[in-house]
Each structure stands twice: as structure tokens, then as C-alpha cells.
Write a structure and sequence with these properties.
Blueprint: H1 2-14, E1 24-31, E2 34-40, H2 43-47, H3 57-74, H4 81-92, E3 96-102, E4 105-109, H5 110-119, E5 125-129, E6 132-140, H6 144-154, E7 158-166, H7 174-177, E8 178-186, E9 205-209, E10 224-231, E11 236-243, H8 244-254, E12 258-262, E13 287-290, H9 312-325, H10 328-344, E14 356-357, E15 365-366, H11 368-373, H12 389-393, H13 399-410, H14 416-431, H15 433-444, H16 449-457, H17 463-490, H18 493-503, H19 510-519, H20 522-530, H21 567-598, E16 602-607, E17 613-618, H22 621-633, E18 636-637, E19 640-647, E20 651-656, H23 657-690, H24 692-717, E21 724-726, E22 731-736, H25 739-748, E23 756-760, E24 765-769, H26 776-791, E25 800-804, E26 808-812, H27 825-839, E27 845-849, H28 857-875, E28 878-882, H29 886-896, H30 899-904, E29 905-914, E30 920-928, H31 936-942, H32 947-958
Helix pairs in contact: 3-5, 13-24, 14-24, 15-17, 15-24, 16-23, 17-18, 17-19, 21-23, 27-28
Bound molecules: adenosine-5'-triphosphate.
Pfam families: MutS_I, MutS_II, MutS_III, MutS_V
Organism: Lachancea dasiensis
InterPro entries: DNA_mismatch_repair_MutS-lik_N, DNA_mismatch_repair_MutS/MSH, DNA_mismatch_repair_MutS_C, DNA_mismatch_repair_MutS_core, DNA_mismatch_repair_MutS_N, DNA_mismatch_repair_MutS_sf, DNA_mmatch_repair_MutS_con_dom, MutS
């Protein structure tokens, strides 16, 4: 609507002097459902038109600001070089917010200052130059993460950061001393500032590759689409080829923060669903249309973005063979993502892992509606995590373990041997309580290794991270020994084999761990971090106020690296200690000098905040006066004069050559030690990065163990049973429960969950009837959840279960969100049902709730009947069908279906039990048969419906 008005307005005003083709969309981004459209309008033409009277939103702000920019450019010669750089950068990065480092501040200039300063709550100022005023706003460098969060995460902008580098320290002219360059472009998918990240989730950037000119043809649901997604903060890269009909399920499973599409697709507005309805789901995501001219680039030219490993040749060979095996679409999607990363992180080492290929045939497919109706990761009502399946089953103790659990939950396995492997390990941990608890305890002492490794790759990370990584690897060693012991104890061949498959990837380079733990002074480091007040003894004025860096003299030894780490450090520490001794001697000499001559109370050597090395003396007012008098007369100490820096009644600050020289020397040595320490730590970081492959292997094994031990714990807590998972099409569950409903009941009331059986084969269908609130939907969902839990290797809530692998789970539970708000309820119901009827196979499980309820009774029944016929005849999947049309459907099945088909359809019901006048309770137990009434009046009464009104309803029913 807004866009149309905008376009009309533009055409009206611009067409006379705007040749066709000059006006085009520059980019369209969807930020949480809201479409942000930007127009590219030639600057000169903007100037010639008057302001529109419509709410133009962002485009006009941009247009307006460009007009200002043009004003500045007209006199570009007059711009100082620094501002000219900013202007050029802004012109080069047109769709980005440009932040430029100026000393210890990041600043926004020109129109960007005007547009974004209010959003960031910054004060907008301006400075006068020869050509006019330039607006600007800024914030201190250390606040970058906070402001990036607002710009990128909250508003969905892309931000180009131009950092400042020292060009030549000998140049005194501030302007020429520094050079600036764009070091990073931050978008929602490349946002890595983890202070604001939920570490339990991946930050995926997803590139989708459609076949060339696909959108010019009618959408063919079987056309092949390439996907590549990558989490830069952990280095994970995945590729997959899916068919168009499965694309949205894949996007839901991946849950990307940003989706990358070729700019050419922009004019087709895929998110409107006109080309392919399902793609309206794109509205939920941040979609970036980008020119991606990566097609002409050879894959090898992107290899520098991968693993900076010591086994570099080997890993490139592996990369080569992985890339060779990819399909054309997968390769194109991968190439696009690499191109984008390269462009957004120029000059940075990225250290990506070799791409892992996901095969559609190796994972259960769960479409987005099923994902939300089963509340896998968030609840439907409040869209919160609490109460979702993930939150109810999560017992993992590490963030990366939680990430793996989420990945499994959204993509259960279809690999029988992998499922059995997980089950066996869960059983092992369940039966060995001690082993499970010790692994848990040890895992709690580990840190997020893949993220730390990436930090090192980007040149970030300090001693804390080095120690965290070393401790995590050490914990991996402890777990390795635990597993070794466990496997020796069991003596059962299959189990020994199983544990040893976990043991070998946990082997690590102990030398490096020892080097870190042996040379970094952890205690000292922790103490100095915890207690800045301790620096008061440093001898610096107001010591401690500036934290660790306040000790320029290094007197309180805030050193992180032990002196024995290198011969150079040893030498420097020796020198530093000698200087400290000289300082003590000097202080002692000055003390005796001033106390003997002037009865001074205290004499201290300090470094003032103004960076002056000063002697601080306290004495009585008369003694201070005497000192001042003698100083004027030319008081000498070690043959040098004093100079007065500051004086009050009872104190004075003096400077003296002896302390000046010594102080400077101390400061210089302390700086050299810090530099040496930093070089040493960089070397250690580099050593870890070189071992990326093995560290990632270890981290992955720990995550795997975290999830499996958490399953064992969950299984004990919730009395779960190991299901038998096989390649048949059985689905036999005895006394199954809905794990989330059961959990909610136990925390909110004293009620118990009523278990129910479910026994269906391929081509069989259960029609479940019952009163409103009778538990029909719960029953449908619980069985789908049991299938998912079974296929991620978790035990399941029931007495026993045999589950033939489910390739796809489909649901139609009336949970469509407002993406489809342009369609009627019935239309949505039909879209969703068609999706099931077109996609379910004989290995699928379909759960359908109240098909046909969105239209008139008779037509609704006919649609419901047609659906169930199609499910058993064509799809031949396992189906559960909840309905209020039980009697009608039973009559149709008996009258129209072949006896063989009738055998495949079973009717089950739940009931309401009356226990007195207007008193009743739900019996959630399913029994064979058809429930003839919905007891809607009872439910309405309980919900507070006016009693008088219900009398009318009863009258109608009796008639
Ligand atoms: N097996 C069960 N044991 C105990 N409580 C249950 C059981 N099944 C459902 N419930 C409770 O009943 C409530 C309603 O269940 P559900 O939504 O499945 O009913 P329904 O038959 O689908 O209702 P409607 O026809 O109105 O959609 C649930 O929220 C849960 O609290």
C-alpha cells in the first residue's frame, strides 16, 4: 500500500525528467515482517522535486539526507581529508550506516548523524567548515557493541565500520598520522558481538540459490534449490539441496538471522507468496537482496576463508573433495555466502570449517507449521521458550551442547545406526549414575570452544579466553579418562567399541594446555580483575580508578604471563625488579632527607593523574612553609633541585630529576613487559588456531556427550523408555504421554496425565472424537513428539514404543500465523491440508485437527472425508485425525469405503463423565468408538458463559 503510493508519487513527480530504468528499487529488506523499501532516485532529480505530503518513512529520510550530502559534495575540495574519507565511504557503502573511528570515538557524520543519532540516543551536534555545517554524533569506542546491537539487531540495519590505524607515529600532524579503512560490515547474519547474543543459539546466515530465471516460470514444486548456511561465530558451514516444496521447512529448521538472495530476485517479491505461496514465510526473516557476482569466481579463490589449520594442505585437499561432491546448486549457494563474508569481513581471517553436507534423506523433515504447532522451540500462545519442547527436555550444561540439542530437535535423524548409537550411550549413562554425574560436573567446567577459537581467529580474546580454552581441553582429557575406565569396566565388546569411538576424538595436545596453564599466572590475573582497589598501593595517584591499566609502573605486578615464559620476559622482569629496588632506595633516601630536615610525616613517590612523576609530602603547615622557603633558596638532593608542582597547607607535590628518570624507566619497562606478554599470548592464540580441526572435534564430542548425558538425566527424571526404532512403518506406543502437558500439569495442579496407546501402520488412520477440551489435540501432538524424540536418540514418555522411521511429520492444527492474514481461515486450512496431501509419503506421520471446520457443516464433512480418503489411498502414511464430525464420517466410511479400506480406519473417543448437577470431569482415556456429542455447553459454562444464554442453546439442542 505504502509502496504503491510511494511509486505513484515518484512517477508523477519524476517521470518527466526520469528516463525509464533510472528509477528502480535499490534494496528491500524484511525486518520481522515489516518491509523496508529503499528507492534509488538520481540525486539531481530529488533536488528538483518538492517534498511529498505522504508519510514517506525511511526513503524520504534517505533522499533528504542525500540532498544534504550533495551540498557537501559540491564543495568537496573544501572538506578536510578526514571528512572527505567519511563522505567517500558513505557513498561507497550506500545501504549501510557508516561508523568511523576518530580517536577513541566512533562517529556518524552528515545525513547519517541526523538519521541515526536519535535512534541511538546520541546528541546530535554540528561543526562549521568553510563549505557549511556538518552534522555529527558519536560514542566512545568501547560502547560499540551496545550501539551495534541497536542498529543491527533491533533495527535490522547493516553497519560499515571504518577503523583507525596508526600510519606513521613519527608524523605529528594528527590528520596524516592515521589511516582509516572499513574493517567490517555488520549485518544480522554476521553480527558476532556476543555480549548481546544468546549463546545457546546459532547465528546463521543463509544463502538460497534458485535456478536461473526460475521465477519467470510457474513454480515447479520439485525444482532443485541450493542452500548454504554458516555461523561465522563458530565457523560452521552447511550445504544442502532441497526441492522447492521443502525449502520453507529447511528455512524453519535452520532458523537463520539473515537470508541472502540475489538482487535479481527482488522484483519478484518472493515474500508475497505470489510465485510460490509457501514463501510468505520469508516475511518472518531479515531478507537481504544483494548483488552476488560470485559465479565467475573459482571456488579455490575462496579457500583462504577456510580453516587456518596446521594440517592446511590436508584440509584443502579435503575441501577440494567436499566441494567436488556438491551439486551445482549447493556450490552456487556456498559461493554466494563466501562472497558475502569476504565482502563483509575484508582482510579478516575467518577460519571456516569444511562445509558439511546435509542430505534431505538423512533427516526427518518438519515443516514450519508443524514446528510451531508442536511447540518445538517456542510456545504458540506466548511465543516464548518456556513451555516449549526444547525447554522441557533441556538438561544440557554447556551453551554449545544446547545448540546441538536445538539442531537435533529441528532435524531428527533418519539414520538408524546413529539413532541406536545414541540410545546405547544414553542407556550406558543412565545405568552408570556416577559416570553421568562426573561427566556433567566436568562439562560444567568447559567453555564455548568453537566461539573462543573464532575470537582468536579474528585477533580478539585475551588471557581469560586462553585460560578458558586450556581448561576446557583439560576437562576433555578428564572425560577421556572417565570413558576409558568405563569401557574397561564394562568388558562388553559393543560398549567398548562405542566408548572408544568417543575416546579417540578427545585426544588433544597436552603440551599446549600445559604451556598455557604453566605460563599464564591465573591467580594473579583473577585477583587483579576482581580487585582494582588493590592498586591503591601502586604509588599512583588515586590508584585503581582506571583498573588494570592504571599501573603504568607495573609495581603491583598485574602481569598475566609468568616471567619464565620467555627469556626476553625474564630479562625485562629482572630489570623491572632492579628498578623497583632503586625506587625503594630513592624513597627511603627522600624520606630520611625530608623527615630529618623538616619533620615530614610521610614521603611517597607517585605518578599523578596528569602523568607527572611526583614526590608527595605531608607535614605540618609550618614544616610545609619551611620546605617551600628552602626550595626557593635552592634546596639540593643528589645535587639536583626540586620543582613545586602543587601545594596546600599540609601537603606538597614536588618533582625531582631522580624520580623523573627512574619513574620513566619503570614505566617504559612495564610497557615493554606488556608488549612482550601480548606478543606471547598472540603466539599462544595462533597455536590454538592452528589446531582448529582437532579442537573442534573435541568440542563437538563434548557437545555430543552433553546432549546424551542430558537425555540420560531426563530419562531418569521423567521415567522415559527406550523406544525400539526400526525401518518398518509401525507406530506402536503403549501408554504414551505428552511430555509438556504432563510437565505443566505436575507444576500447576495435582492432576495426573492420562496415558493413551496409539497403534497405527502405514496406510492406517485413526479418527479421534471427543468433547471440547477432551484431549484430542494433545493426543495427536504427543505421538508426533514421541516420534521426534525417538529419532533424536532420546528416550520417550510411554511404557513401550516401536517406531518405524518417520521421514516427514505433517500437521494441520489450526495454528496458522498472521503471515497468511490476507487469506480466509478456510483458505489457510486448505493450503495447509494440500501441503500434506501433496507431500506425505508412506513413511510419514500426519496429524490433522478438525479438517473442514472452517466452512459449512456439510461441505466441511465432505472435505474431511476427501482428505482421509486421499491419505489412506494415495499418501499411505500413518495418520491421526481429530474431528467433531465423528458420526458423519463414520456413516460416510461405512457407506462409501471398500471393506478393506474400512479396516484401515479406526474410531476412538474420549468422554466427559458427569458426577452430579452441573459437575463433570474429562476422561482423557481413549476408547474405541465415536463420541456423539461435543459437550460444548458444559465447556461454555465452565468458561463463564452467561447461564441464561446457555438456556437458549439447550433449547435448540433439544428441539
Ligand atoms: N491425556 C490427558 N491427561 C490429562 N490432561 C489432559 C490430557 N489430554 C489433554 N489434557 C488437558 O486437557 C486440555 C485440553 O486438551 P486438548 O486441547 O487436547 O483438547 P481438545 O479435545 O483438542 O479440545 P477442542 O476440541 O476444544 O480443541 C489440555 O490443555 C490438558 O490440560
Amino acid at each position: 500500500m505504502q509502496l504503491n503510493r510511494t511509486l505513484k508519487w515518484c512517477h508523477k513527480r519524476l517521470v518527466p525528467n526520469c528516463p525509464t530504468g533510472k528509477l528502480r528499487f535499490e534494496s528491500t529488506s524484511t525486518v520481522r515482517g515489516a518491509t523496508v523499501e529503499r528507492l534509488k532516485i538520481p540525486i539531481d532529480q530529488i533536488k528538483s522535486i518538492s517534498e511529498p505530503q505522504i508519510d514517506f518513512g525511511l526513503p524520504i529520510a534517505v533522499a533528504k539526507s542525500r540532498r544534504v550530502a550533495k551540498g557537501a559534495r559540491n564543495v568537496s575540495n573544501a572538506l578536510p581529508p578526514t571528512l572527505q574519507y567519511v563522505r567517500d565511504t558513505m557513498d561507497r557503502h550506500k545501504n549501510y550506516v557508516v561508523l568511523t573511528q576518530m580517536g577513541s570515538f566512533y562517529e556518524l557524520y552528515f545525513e547519517h548523524a541526523e538519521i541515526y543519532a536519535p535512534k541511538l540516543n546520541l546528541t546530535l551536534t554540528s561543526r562549521e567548515y568553510t563549505h557549511g555545517k556538518v552534522s555529527f554524533a558519536g560514542f566512545p569506542v568501547h560502547q560499540i557493541q551496545r550501539h551495534l546491537k541497536v542498529l543491527v539487531k533491533d533495527h535490522g540495519y547493516s553497519v560499515a565500520i571504518a577503523d583507525q590505524f596508526l600510519k606513521d607515529s613519527s608524523i605529528t600532524n594528527e590528520t596524516n598520522r592515521f589511516l582509516r579503512r572499513v574493517t567490517r560490515i555488520v549485518t544480522p547474519g554476521t553480527f558476532m558481538d556476543e555480549a548481546f547474543e544468546n549463546l545457546q543459539e546459532n547465528t546463521y546466515l543463509l544463502s538460497i540459490e534458485f535456478p536461473g530465471k526460475a521465477t519467470l516460470r510457474t513454480a515447479d514444486i520439485d525444482m532443485k534449490i541450493g542452500l548454504c548456511w554458516c555461523d561465522i561465530s563458530t565457523g560452521e558451514v552447511y550445504v544442502q539441496q532441497v526441492s522447492l516444496k521443502d525449502t520453507v521447512s529447511a528455512i524453519t529448521r535452520i532458523g537463520p538471522r539473515e537470508i541472502l538472495l540475489d538482487e535479481e530476485l527482488m522484483s519478484f517479491s518472493l515474500e508475497k507468496g505470489e510465485w510460490f505461496t509457501e514463501l510468505v514465510e520469508l516475511k518472518k526473516y531479515f531478507v537481504k537482496y544483494q548483488r552476488l557476482p560470485s559465479g565467475h569466481r573459482e571456488m579455490k579463490t575462496f579457500y583462504h576463508l577456510f580453516n587456518c589449520d596446521e594440517e592446511v594442505d590436508r584440509s584443502f585437499a579435503k575441501l577440494d573433495s567436499t566441494v567436488r561432491d556438491l551439486t551445482q546448486k549447493e556450490t552456487a549457494a556456498l559461493r554466494n555466502i563466501l562472497f558475502y563474508i569476504e565482502e563483509h569481513l575484508p582482510n579478516a581471517q575467518v577460519n571456516l570449517q569444511t562445509p558439511q553436507r546435509q542430505l534431505t534423506t538423512s533427516i526427518m523433515q518438519i515443516d514450519s507449521r508443524t514446528n510451531s504447532s508442536l511447540e518445538l522451540t517456542s510456545t504458540m500462545r506466548s511465543n516464548s521458550r518456556k513451555g516449549s519442547l526444547l525447554s522441557v527436555i533441556r538438561r544440557t550444561v554447556t551453551p554449545s551442547g544446547s545448540r546441538l540439542l536445538s539442531q537435533w530437535l529441528c532435524a531428527p535423524s533418519l539414520n538408524l545406526s546413529e539413532i541406536h548409537r545414541r540410545q546405547k550411550l544414553v542407556k550406558l549413562f543412565k545405568e552408570n549414575d556416577d559416570l553421568m554425574k562426573t561427566i556433567f560436573r566436568t562439562l560444567k567446567q568447559t567453555y564455548d570452544m568453537p566461539r573462543i577459537l573464532q575470537k582468536f581467529t579474528f585477533g580478539k580474546g585475551e588471557a581469560t579466553e586462553l585460560l578458558q580454552l586450556a581448561h576446557s581441553l583439560q576437562s576433555a582429557g578428564v572425560i577421556l579418562k572417565l570413558l576409558q575406565k568405563a569401557s574397561e569396566k564394562t568388558n562388553k565388546m559393543p560398549l567398548t567399541k562405542l566408548t572408544s569411538s568417543l575416546i579417540s576424538p578427545l585426544q588433544c595436545n597436552e603440551f599446549l594446555i600445559e604451556k598455557v596453564l604453566g605460563t599464564l599466572d591465573e591467580e594473579q590475573f583473577l585477583r587483579s580483575r576482581k580487585a582494582p582497589a588493590e592498586f591503591e598501593s601502586l604509588g599512583t595517584e588515586n590508584g585503581g580508578q582506571k583498573g588494570l591499566d592504571v599501573d603504568p609502573l607495573g609495581e603491583s605486578s598485574p602481569w598475566v604471563v609468568q616471567s619464565n615464559a620467555s627469556s626476553q620476559l625474564q630479562k625485562l622482569h629482572k630489570l623491572h625488579n632492579e628498578l623497583l629496588v632503586s625506587r625503594d632506595i630513592l624513597r627511603h633516601d627522600l624520606e630520611s632527607f625530608f623527615t630529618t630536615k623538616f619533620q615530614a610525616r610521610t614521603v611517597q613517590l607517585k605518578l599523578k593523574q596528569s602523568n607527572e612523576f611526583a614526590i608527595h609530602i605531608t607535614a605540618s603547615p609550618s614544616n610545609i612553609r619551611e620546605i617551600m622557603f628552602k626550595l626557593k633558596e635552592g634546596l639540593l638532593f643528589r645535587e639536583e633541585l626540586f620543582r613545586v608542582i602543587q601545594k596546600s597547607a599540609q601537603t606538597c607535590w614536588l618533582s625531582h630529576e631522580s624520580w623523573l628518570e627512574l619513574g620513566h624507566e619503570l614505566e617504559l619497562t612495564a610497557m615493554k613487559i606488556k608488549k612482550e606478554e601480548s606478543a606471547y599470548m598472540n603466539e599462544l592464540k595462533g597455536e590454538f588456531v592452528k589446531r582448529s580441526s582437532s579442537i573442534r572435534r573435541i568440542a563437538h564430542t563434548l557437545d555430543y556427550l552433553d546432549v546424551l548425558t542430558s537425555f540420560a538425566k531426563l530419562s531418569l527424571e521423567k521415567s522415559l523408555t527406550c523406544p525400539s526404532v526400526n525401518s518398518t512403518t509401525e507406530f506402536n506406543v503403549t501408554s504414551g504421554r505428552h511430555i509438556m502437558v504432563e510437565d505443566a500439569l505436575s507444576t500447576k495442579s495435582l492432576e495426573h496425565f492420562t496415558p493413551n496407546d496409539c497403534n497405527i501402520q502405514a496406510q492406517e488412520l485413526w479418527i479421534v472424537t471427543g468433547p471440547n477440551m477432551g484431549g484430542k489435540s494433545t493426543f495427536l501432538r504427543q505421538n508426533a513428539i514421541i516420534a521426534i524424540l525417538a529419532q533424536i536418540g532420546c528416550f520417550v514418555p510411554c511404557k513401550s514404543a516401536t517406531i518405524g522411521l518417520v521421514d516427514k511429520i505433517f500437521s494441520r492444527m489450526g495454528s496458522a500465523d498472521d503471515l497468511y492474514n490476507e487469506m480466509s481461515t478456510f483458505m489457510v486450512e486448505m493450503v495447509e491440508t494440500s501441503y500434506i496431501l501433496n507431500g506425505a509419503t508412506s513413511s510419514s506421520l500426519a496429524i490433522l485437527d478438525e479438517i473442514g471446520r472452517g466452512t459449512s457443516g456439510k461441505e466441511g464433512v465432505s472435505i474431511a472425508y476427501a482428505t482421509l480418503k486421499h491419505l489412506i489411498e494415495r499418501n499411505k502414511c500413518r495418520s491421526l485425525f481429530a474431528t467433531h464430525f465423528g458420526t458423519e464420517l463414520q456413516a460416510l466410511v461405512r457407506g462409501k469405503c471398500h471393506p478393506e479400506q474400512q479396516q484401515k480406519i479406526s474410531f476412538y473417543q474420549s468422554a466427559v463423565l458427569d458426577v452430579g448437577e452441573n459437575e463433570f470431569y474429562y476422561d482423557h482415556r481413549l476408547t474405541p468408538g465415536v463420541c456423539t456429542q461435543s459437550d460444548a455447553i458444559k465447556v461454555a459454562l465452565r468458561a463463564g458463559f452467561p447461564r441464561d444464554s446457555l438456556l437458549h442453546a439447550e433449547e435448540v439442542l433439544k428441539a
